[in-house]
Amino acid sequence: MFHEVVEDGRVSGAGVADADADEVTPAALRSAFEALLSESVAEAGRERMRDETDVDEASIEAAAAGDVSGISVTDAAAIVAVTADRDADAVVAELRDHLLMGMATAVLDVDTLAAAIDADLTGQEVQQALEGRAGMTVGQLAEVMAVIERRKR
Predict the structure, then answer these.
(1) 3-class SS at 133?
(2) What is the pLDDT of residues 13-29, one digit of tens each?
């Protein structure tokens, strides 16, 4: 789901300008994630989101408004999973696999990745987030994914 916004080295999705799509940047990824989440909330409706997820009201409202940077990846996955008819845990596991495989392809270690992002995370914190032992926000995901995708080229 989240990793599918990058196709052939370009960012795709509603809300992503063509100029942004040409380069995988955190801003372009955030725009694609914003569109993905706000479309999911619009399609399912806020009530269904509240009924079918454990996501708090503030995160649902933020997703609907397109303000997704501070939403946790697990909450974002739960939101997207409702309309995709998928299990949220499977969405997160698939995303983690994609990120770890991307790091292997790009020959990136967690310390190099941590140094290349604007988020104030150490290599150990990046590793914990990628493994699911610590939380990661959608904004942090956009930064991490942008570095990985650019280095894979």
Answers:
(1) coil
(2) 544 444 444 578 999 99
